[in-house]
What we know:
two-stranded antiparallel ribbon; extended
Amino acid sequence: xxxxxxxxxxxxxxVLGYAxxxxxxxxxxxxxxxxxxxRPNYYGWNVALLTAVPSxxxxxxxxxxxxxxxxxxxxxxNGGVFAGVVLVVALAGMxxxxxxxxxxxxxxxxxxxxxxxxxxxxxxxAIATTVGIVLSLVFESLNFFRLYPWQDFFFGTEWTPxxxxxxxxxxxPLLWGTLYISVIALLVAVPVGLFAAxxxxxxxxxxxxxxxKPAIEVLAGIPTIVYGxxxxxxxGPLIRxxxxxxxxxxxxxxxxxxxxLVMGMMLIPFVSSLSDDIINAVPQSLRDGSLAxxxxxxxxxxxxxxxxxxxxxxxxxxxxxxxxxxETMIVVMGAGAMARISPNPFEAMxxxxxxxxGQLTGDNDFASPETLVAFALGLTLFVITLGLxxxxxxxxxxxxxxYE
Length: 404
């Protein structure tokens, strides 16, 4: 029996166990539920959890062990036996829980302990996932640096990978393109998003706010491939024809400016929505006190509201920066794939994320430095974003103000 159908049977048994456990508890006191230690639903949940949790855990362990025991390309010969064992465990758990269903049984305590354990397990899974990602990047990066000098990687100014040998894998051109495009995107998104948030929270009427805020948030729901097409078909040619060619700075529709402007449009709702919520969270008493002392509304916003909301606004900006650094599709279609260091924003460049995808695409030798460099690039990008988060935490702690 396939694992999916085993899981369906287990969940069905858990639903049946819930009904049986709740009914058994109610019948034990002849319908007078005040004589029960816990509410009837807890007795039902106790049976359902003891039916589902052990059997689902055994099923998951069997599925994870499948490639090791039976191989990935063939089904194990004892699959039917394993399915029978899982179902027996589910029925045994149901029977054990039903025998413990008495009026004096502390069902609520047991259910809450199980739920708390499941929440802790979910937290540990999240932590273990993060640790696993970091360790995979670190180990593969170490393999890369055994094959390629780290000095040439971190300080090299040429990016010319060649699987036939003679590759130049310097990260500086990619790092320059990543930071250049991200800065342009933030120069577009942060002022527009912050000013939009200030207008919606401090000046706009409820009617205008109910129209403008959803309209801005629509931008967050547009797929990045659509932004990429917009950059390729509309924004790029306009920048080339109106700015780059008249000023003699380039004749390509793919450029840092194209990707930065379109990415900035994409980031506007991230900054505006978060900043709007943060500004609205500033206590109204601070505004009233400032206005009572003779400050104008604009002075109140500059000297009271924005300083109070500064930690949250910094967090919104850092979230937008992380989103910009990790963007790929807009860069591919708007900025091109040329790795170079140039101050000209109308030239084609590329970013770290684009090259990570490029180096891992296709039937490549996974033990070659040209492929393993993707993990070194990923680790570098992780360190950069971690540094941004640490900086944001420092700003928040330094300027945070607490109000009663």
